[in-house]
Here is the input.
Amino acid sequence: MGSHYEAPIRKPLVTGNKTYHQISVDVARPIEGSANKQWWIVFGISLTLFMWGIGCIIYTISTGIGTWGLNKTVGWAWDITNFVWWVGIGHAGTLISAVLLLFRQKWRMGINRSAEAMTIFSVIQAGLFPIIHMGRPWLAYWIVPIPNTFGSLWVNFNSPLLWDVFAISTYLTVSLVFWWTGLLPDFAMIRDRAVKPFQKKIYSLVSFGWSGRAKDWQRFEEVSLVLAGLATPLVLSVHTIVSFDFATSVIPGWHTTIFPPYFVAGAIFSGFAMVQTLLIVMRKVCNLEDYITVQHIELMNIVIMITGSIVGCAYITELFIAWYSGVEYEQYAFLNRATGPYWWAYWAMMTCNVFSPQFMWFKKLRTSIVFSFVISIVVNIGMWFERFVIIVTSLHRDYLPSSWTMFSPTFVDIGIFLGTIGFFFVLFLLYARTFPVIAQAEVKTILKSSGDNYKELRDKKK
Amino acid sequence: MAEKFIHAVYDDDDKLLDAIKNLKKNKIMIEEVFTPFPVHGLDHLLDLKPTRIAIAAFIYGCIGFTFGVLMINYIMIVDWPQNIGGKPSFSLLENLPAFVPVMFELTVFFTGHLMVITFYLRSRLWPFKEAENPIPETTDDKFLIQIPIYGNESKIKSIIKTTDFYDLTVIDESVKKPDNTHDEEIHNFEETKTDYEITIGFVFHARKYSDGSSNLRIQFTRGRGQQYAKNSGLRIYRKHWISKKSEVSEKHPEYEKVNKAISSIKEKINSVKQMFADGKISFEDAYKEVIEN
Here is the structure.
């Protein structure tokens, strides 16, 4: 067992005396069993929200963007806030599976599958908003480079909005193949256990005939490593480019060089918070407490605390630079944020994002499941307000005081946002019932080094 | 290619690695190893060549980057240069900073997708592809070594028996396997999985009598592994067999008498299951209680 050595100081990542077979059984259980009442209730609520959102989208498209609360001054509001919020949430998955793979962090294995699923589902939600905002979404293909014969000029490669098109579509598709490649051995495990013919057929189809040969595994590991190496700069580039949407403009409050790192930290922050929200519920409902342990939750809380503090530093830096620049427009933009008519949004953001994660310095609090869940929700709310503050407070009072105005959302704005939350949970709930939610093949590789029974065995030998 | 194989199954990755070392020491050829997860060091032990997929990925990245540069140069500089805020729109180099993001994304896009496609094609993975692992447990917790036999069957067997193996089977592909779905049908009363459970069901003997009837046999299975079948003493026309109910239909000659006999067997089967669960009889002797009484 020499090759499975792990420092005794490291806490076990798989508890409950698992064997290889037991891992398969535990991961297959939610798929092979039937859904309970709570699942149907939550699914019903999500589906209702989703349908309501579809109704609002149909109303928007058939009547026009005038159904939203936008006006001549505030031309971007809830739609882009929601877009950036969802894209930000979509950053944790690839960060967990790619960056933590490069750093050889074993604790990623219990959570990476669901985090990647969350990434894909939230990027889908994000993508909806710019497309709806086009007003004529059936012409959405005009954002890809197509020649003049279509009646328009080529797309403009100087524009950060076009960079976004390339960044987000690359991110979505590369994350999807990364996710699916990792799923193949796990789908194969479900396929080989399946007793119902229909189930067997479906999992044969999606597992692409995975057989687990030595050569396949060699390639599998190499592909995972290279994809992780690619996805790491990719994930950083995506939110950098999203921040360019603002930073390359000349609006006071947007035109800042700190935006790319600040947005990336914020994205990781909100993404981990959403992973935390989902996994705390999932580990309970699917009986996966042995794979998503308190140790996992604690480590995620530490990431939330650190990224939250980075975000806090960025907020303070912005204020300082606004004062230090001597530019009165810039100074006013930040004064207006903190003390203007949207002061409540600014202070909600500060409280949720900067103060609340500081509780995680206390071990007792960051190992408490209920407290972690509450903080994860608070952070999600705070990060929504961050985007709202950046977008709306910067726009509503710009250079011309005669154009100053306020923004308030209509029921359509709210409906579409709630609709995407519903859509997200519909996808995630279906995923939790049909996909292996733990990367079981990977967890099996760390069982002998990080399983509690094997660790105890090694401790006794000494 | 050999037509006969030995499948040596192990239930632990370290036992598997020890066995492979042992086989290599004795110069036995290993054709394939199936494992449920990547076993560290297995590729070195099997002397697999390092995969060149990362090199391919680098080439794909170069293709993506070149495509990006050429496309942006054509669109923004050659085909339709525009004056955008007084930027230097007639030179790719001077305008390059604004083009970096898309070039980067295209490089990643090409590398990621083409590499994964290459992996799927080289490892023969695609929708509707049939899985090729010889036993389903190799995706769960079993590790299988496939060894071709070239007249050295007993030598291989003796080497494997020195290792801590879980199961050993000889597969002979030159003898055509009977097609189970047509000749023999298994009608289980219930699905069981663990080794401590016994499954008893009806199967038909593959050979038919000249009148078209065949022997109804009773099959005993322990867990997923050991299995044997005994004649029930009944001769039945299979075309009248209802597999869902495990009885014959009304069209069968003397169907009442036959169904009565079958139901008495079913009763015995249930009592045998109970006896087995209570530990009163062994798996090997279970048939005696059903057939001889």
Observations:
- Residues 85 and 384 of chain A are 6 Å apart (CA to CA).
